Amino acid sequence: MLWAREIPRFSAARTPDSLARPLAATFLDRITWVDRLAFTAYGLRVVVRVDDPGVLQRLPDYLPHVWKRSASTVANRLYSIFTVSGPKVDGRPDSDQDRKIPGFRTSACHLYRGGRALAHTDSLEKLLDAFESDLRLYVATWALRRVFVHAGVVGWQGRAVLLPGPSGSGKTRLVAALVRAGATYYSDEYAALDEHGRVHPYLKPLFMREEGMARGKRCPVEELDGRSGTKALPAGLIAFTRHSHGVAWKPYPLSPGRAMLGLLANTVPVRRKPEAALAAVRRVCSEALALEGPRGEAEDVARWLLSRVER
Amino acid sequence: MLPCARTEDLLIEELPNELVVYDRIRHRAHNLNRTAALVWKQCDGKTTVESIGARLRDELEAGMEDRLVWFALDDLGKAGLLRERIEVPENACRLSRRKITGQLALMGGVSLLLPVVISIVAPTPADATSGTRPQRDP
């Protein structure tokens, strides 16, 4: 039975996945797949096949904010998750890539994207985290009709507050502080912009990094007594900031052009579709106040930011 | 050689008093302030530096030296926004940009006229986001 196959191109979004078909693909085709989940997200068709139906039940928690089941067996991207080890996977020659990702023969859980190994691990949690982050990047890069900017987002008084920045800059902590201060949660990862520059929610549990913890913790917004946004909002404020201990919050304003550059530096598909990225980012920066500066503790800055949106 | 702006493979967004330019070949984005943008627009391959300086003085309604035009051309050339980089004459660069800024500041806020070109490298998807490396057990 044909469980899924990748197609080389898809009308509006040509993806690079199936341009190469590594050795592992034939090996994967010999595995007995017992179930699959086919879905579309942001115009992209994805299939995940599994050898354990229990894995499939957990997958929805790791899918993008907006997704819809599909009956199609063809996909822009095919993921394979299997949970066997030892003799069952023997007979497959190690590829160069498997040597780079140790644990193929000893681990219990395996994740492949197309024919490419992404993770071998004993922890299904870690495997699903790897699946989620790979899928999230794929969607952010290839989504139709949206431009994804790496940023935390909350809504306040009918306006979106954007907090662009790289990982580790304290976006999630500031988003959490804003939500505790009464703002509506939109995302701690992406600002999903449409062609009019409006900001759509990209909801997922906040990923809180605690000191001393090897892995972050997924924190649903309800745990913060917050609520999630549902409507697209025009941008009201963009704050380029990074946490630094003991620093007083003294932001300075940025011109719309400087703010555009700051957003473009965090725009996932800027190289793939620069026209759309530039147009969306320009609209955002034309209507929002942009500020830059290092910040101290999130709670103080959160209140200040919300008060600026109100003006 | 007269300065000539590159026009192909560029996406240009005009904003009040500034420009944002995206270079589709080098995958770089540039922000030109008003002075730099005015200089760049005058680079048609036919206009001399002196003429660009004169037009700038008219446009900005301020007394400014041709040296600022040379600074702008140097920055624009480095950003890849000219067809060919312009050889800046030695006497035009005798004073450093910092000294020029200081001199202009003494003239009362005229340092806003200093041409500024800020550039970034457009990120790849993996650069722009987080948690993208393959996971592996420790």
What does this structure look like?
The complex is a heterodimer of chains A (311) and B (138). Chain A has helices at residues 24-29, 53-58, 96-100, 124-142, 171-180, 256-264, 274-287, 298-310; strands spanning 5-6, 35-41, 44-50, 68-69, 74-75, 77-82, 109-113, 116-121, 147-156, 159-164, 184-187, 190-193, 199-200, 206-208, 217-219, 235-240, 252-253, 289-292. Chain A has 311 residues and is an alpha+beta fold. In chain A, the strands form 4 sheets. In chain A, strands 9, 10, 11, 12, 13, 16, 17 and 18 form an 8-stranded mixed sheet that branches. A 6-stranded mixed sheet of chain A has the order 4-2-3-6-7-8. In chain A, α5 packs across α8 and α6 crosses α7 (274-287). Chain A is globular. Chain B has 138 residues and is an alpha+beta fold. Chain B has a 4-stranded antiparallel sheet. Chain B starts with 9 loop residues before the first strand and ends in a 10-residue tail after the last helix. Mean pLDDT of chain B is 83; it is low at 131-138. Classes of the chains: A alpha+beta (311), B alpha+beta (138). Chains A and B meet through β8, α4, α6 and α7 of A and β1, β2, β3 and α5 of B.
**Total number of helices of chain B:** 5
Indicate the proportion of strand residues of chain B. Answer: 15-25%
Number of strands of chain B: 4
The largest sheet of chain B has its strands arranged as 1-2-3-4
Task: State Rg of chain B.
Answer: 18 Å
Oligomeric state of the chains present here: heterodimer
The biggest beta sheet of chain A reads: 8 strands, mixed
Helix content of chain A: 25-40%
SSE string of chain A, helices as H and strands as E: EHEEHEEEHEEHEEHEEEEEEEHHEH
Tally of strands of chain A = 18
Give the biggest beta sheet of chain B. 4 strands, antiparallel
* Separation of the first and last Cα atoms of chain A: 62 Å
Instruction: Round the mean pLDDT of chain B to the nearest integer and report it.
Output: 83
Query: Spans of chain B with pLDDT under 50 lasting ≥5 residues?
Result: 131-138
The best one-word shape of chain B is: globular
